[in-house]
Amino acid sequence: RLGTELANVTVTKYSNQETAVTIGESVRDEDVFIVQSGCGEINDHLMELLIMINACKTASARRITAVLPCFPYARQDKKDKSRAPISAKLVANMLTVAGADHVITMDLHASQIQGFFDCPVDNLYGEPSVLRYIRENVPEWKNAIIVSPDAGGAKRATSIADHLDLDFALIHKERKKANEVSRMVLVGDVKDKVAILVDDMADTCGTLGLAAKTLMDNGASAVYAIVIHGVLSGKALDVINNSMLTRVVVTNTIPHAEKKKHCPKLDTIDVSAVLAEAIRRTHNG
Predict the structure, then answer these.
(1) Residue 242, exposed/middle/buried by CB under 10 A (0-12, 13-18, 19+)?
(2) Which among 98, 167, 174, 215 could disulfide-bond with 220, CB atoms 3.0 to 4.6 Å apart, if both were Cys?
(3) What does DSSP assign to residue 8?
(4) Which helix (H) or strand (E) holds 244?
(5) DSSP state of 79
């Protein structure tokens, strides 16, 4: 979208699994943007990014911007129990120490993560893309209700509901341990309405599956789920295929072309234009 070519980079692994990066062209005094999303082999990808930033820094690049559509370890952003690490802060420190001068990311799990950095952070929002998708692709969206599957996402959901001039409902969930939800209580009226679940991240999709069941049990006519980061790990695709969800919409901050083949309910919102524009404006000032 920017009309520029990708630079030549060779990433190899030694037999002992060490990552080695070779940058195939000069970056001296250039404005370098390194795009890497936190997905798949997260730790390998993170090391790859850090080594690449360091390679550019030692090759005297003028400015290095790390473009992380999905920020890794964003969920570990506070000490929710004693002796818990704050890994998001650690990742921020690692990026800064490696030599990143600027970070561009999308829909951080908690916007306070921007404060973990000492360099400028652009936290882009997927909300305008989500609003456009709802208006164009959800039939009867005027008879819809926006639902947040947990109290944490209430702010995001109310913001979308306000923009579309729709009602808002909330699901209260109780967790016994991470990634497993024990029971759900719906607050709000969804009878005979199209329920649109809005969340920032879908990992194992257990929450979405249970939320869809709760909404259908309470009389919703259809349930859509719109998620910014579709991690979709573990049994996520089976959960979606066997759930009452009409469609699960994710943005392409995490590549999921392979997963779409196994899950006909998956749909994509393309956010490359948003990231490209951010890169263009960072470069041109």
Answers:
(1) exposed
(2) 215
(3) P
(4) none
(5) -
CA 155, CA 188: separation in Å to the nearest integer? 16
**DSSP single-letter state for residue 7:** P
Cβ-contact 68, 103 below 8 angstroms: yes
Q: Which distant-in-sequence residues (6+ apart) come within 8 Å of 116 by Cβ?
A: 88, 89, 92, 93
CA distance 96 to 279: 19
pLDDT tens sequence across 30-67: 999 999 987 778 999 999 999 999 999 999 999 999 99
Burial class (CB within 10 angstroms; exposed 0-12, middle 13-18, buried 19+) of 188? middle
Contact 74, 50 (CB under 8 A): no
H/E stretch holding 108: none
Residue that has been written with the tokens 């009309």 in this structure:
3
pTM of the model: 0.90
Give residue 181's pLDDT: 66
- d(CA 259, CA 237) in angstroms, rounded, equals 8
